[in-house]
Each structure stands twice: as C-alpha cells, then as structure tokens.
Amino acid sequence: MNLIAAAIIGIAVIVLLIAACKVHPFLSLLAGSFVMAVCAGVPFDKAFDSFTSGVGGTISNVGLLIAFGSIIGTILFKSGGADTIVDTIMAKTPLQRLPWAMALIAFIVGIPMFFEVGVVILIPVVLFAARRSKSPVVLLGIPALAGLSTLHAFVPPHPGPLTAIGALNANLGITLALGLIVAIPTVIISGPLFGRLAAKWVPIAAPENEAEAEAPKSAENRPSFGTALSVILLPVVLMLAASIVDLTGQNTTAWGRVIAFLGTPLVALLITTVFAMVALGYMQKFSRDAVNGMVGQSFGSVAGIILIVAAGGGFKQTLVDSGIGDVIANSITESAMNPLIAGWLVAVLIRLATGSATVATVTASGIMVPLAAGMSPTHLALLVLAIGAGSVFFSHLNDAGFWLVKEYFGMSVGQTLKTWSLMETILSVVGLGCVMLLSLVL
C-alpha cells in the first residue's frame, strides 16, 4: 500500500504541476519522480539515481530516432517535397472527394512528421481547399487532423510510440506494421466519416485571409512526387523488411543479416536521413550550407520533445527500480483486467489530467512494464498501440493542440469541443477496438 500511495502521490505531483501550476512537463516529471522515490522509501540523496539512469537509457534508445525523424521531416518540408505530395493528390481529386484526399495526404505526410509540423503544413492547404470548394472548413479539416493525430499516436518514429516501444522492449517493425493496420480504419472512421457529421454541427466557412495568404507555393524547383514519396516510404520498407526476415527465421542467413541490419531503426532512419539530404537537398540544387541549415533547424523543434521523453524514461525507471511498477502490475493482474485495456485506461487518465499525449504515453508505458514481461512480440506491439490510443483521448482546454486547432479554424471553445475533442475521443476508442480485434486473431 505504501508503494501504491507513492505512485499516486508522484503522479498527482506531475498532474498538479502541469495542469494547475503550468510548469513545463520536463520539470514536472523530474519533480514527480523525486517525490515518488522518496515516498517509496528511497533515501533522498539517492532519489535521482534511477531517474538519471532512465534519462540516459531513453535518450540513447529513443532520442536519436526522434532527432533523425525531425531531420527527415524538416528537409521534406523545406525542400517543397511535402507541398509536392499535397498538390499532386489534390490535383487528381474531384471536389466531392476532398475529405478523403485530405485524410490520405495527412496519412502520408504524417508518417515521418510530428503532429505540430504536419498541422503547419496541412492546415493552410485545408483552408485554401475549403474556400475553393465552398465547403465547411470542418468537413476537410477533421479528416486532415484525424490522419495526423492517428499517425502521431500509433506509428514510429513519432515520440510516443518510440518511447513505449523502448520501455516495453517491443519490436519496432512489428509495431510499425500493426500500427499502420490499426491506423487505416481509425482514420477512416474518425476522419471523413465523422467529418461529415461534424460539418453539420459546425458549418462554418474557412477564415477569409489566411487561405489566400497561405496558398500553396509555386511548383518551381520542387522535387518530384516520386522522390518525395520515396523519402517517406524508405524507412517503413526497411523496418518492415527486417521484421519479415526476423519472423520467417531468415535472420541467420547472410542476406538476412544484412536486411536485419539495414532495418534496425537507427540504421534505417540514418540511411533515410542521408537519402533525404541527397535527393531533396543536393539534387534540388540546395547548397551544402542550406542543407546543413535545415538539419540544424530540425534540432530546435524537437529539443523540448526529447527532454520530455527522456524525463518520462527517468520516471519509468524510478517506477521500475522502486518496485512500484510490480505492485501496480500485480493489482491489475489480480483484478483480471485485460492488460491492453488497462494500458489504454491508464493512458486515458493521465491524458485527461495533463493534456499531454507524450506524458500519458511515457507514464503509462512505465507503469505497464512489469506486465509486459511474459507477452508475445505481437501482443507487446498491441500494448504499445493500446497505450497510444489512450494517449489521445478527448483533447480539451489543457492541451496545446486544442488551442492550435481552435485558432486556425476560427472556432469557439464549444465548437472545438464538438469537433476536434470529439474526433480525438472517437479516434482513441476506435483505435482500442481495432487493437482488441487484432489481439483475438494474433
């Protein structure tokens, strides 16, 4: 009971600091880990030992992957590759199918790009398309947001899935493959299908000036559609190939070992980074300094994310080393609750309290570590996805994404709750449902 109380107090400190005191999640996780360790009986002069160990392990395991993912996304954006993908799909799409096109664009662009970057790229396109087609902005906006948010929750190299994979020792390739399978029906239901209903509730037009000011740029000097798409799909192909080799037992052969090496997450993203620098940088007549500038800019955008994820790893390690995780896992086991549902529920509660999908993922994955010990590789991957689904449940006033969407679309708080917040809830529940269905057949 003392250990459970320590965990509750530690999580409460994190929630209080983030939600009420508006302290940065990195500092909140640091303080919560210290309080939890002391309450669990760890001497105060050793209370940070587990935290610093977890931070180092997380940065070495996840931080580098996030950095590479940011480089790829930044080069894709700065080179015009993302614009090429968007414009190519829109040019071939009838106006009545624009909601589905927006979902497809967001799905493709959202694989390597973080949610905030994807929003910056796609929302001006949504506003422009809504004005051109005289459609409610929500009709096109919800599918785009659903695509970005779903990939953010389920698919590496986004920070949440990567953190959970590292904490639970899940296979990245299997998680990627299952994440894409879960993402497709989740995007369809929470995007174009729900978007039609949301547009009836909030039938507002796109803001007048932003669409014109942010209209798609000239296609001059942009990379081709095939080149831009190849940068996005290369790491997916490499990691999936490595998983297939591993699952078929071919990883002992010479060619199998090569494919397994190339599909290692760090190697796959390194190869893709170099490919992006060459194909989207040097081959598009960007100078060496310009390409290096893109790489440098990418680090600034993810420094905060890496620190939050690292602090989450420290919190997780404190849970593990103090024995709190084992106690919570035993309690879940004794209650006979399905581990996938338990992981989703823990993530939901932390998401509602803190407003951060990343904090919800790293905390929930840390709590679920003891339960993951005896799970098969496929069910470990499904646990990662269940936690990811819970981490995006009902975005509301304590989530920065809520205000980002509200301001871009010019909605009131009530309208944002009826559209964006409800879409996130549907996404979370449908995602969990897909995970549970897969758990029955795998």
Q: Characteristics of this structure?
A:
globular, 442 residues, 78% helix, 20 helices, mainly alpha
Summary, kept brief:
This is Gluconate permease. The protein is mainly α and 442 residues long.
Radius of gyration: 21 Å
Total count of helical runs of at least 4 residues: 20
Which strand-content bin applies to the residues? under 5%
The SS-based structural class is mainly alpha
Total domain modules:
1
Are there runs of 5+ residues with pLDDT below 50, and where?
209-217
Share of helical residues: over 70%
In total, the number of strands is 0
Largest sheet: none
General shape: globular
> What is the H/E string?
HHHHHHHHHHHHHHHHHHHH
What do the pLDDT scores average to? 84
Distance between the termini: 36 Å
Give me the oligomer status: single chain
Report on this model:
By secondary structure, this protein is mainly α. It contains 20 helices and no strands. It has one domain (2-441). It has helices at residues 2-20, 25-39, 49-78, 81-91, 98-109, 115-133, 137-154, 159-168, 172-201, 208-213, 225-247, 254-262, 265-281, 288-322, 324-334, 339-354, 357-367, 377-390, 400-409, 413-441.
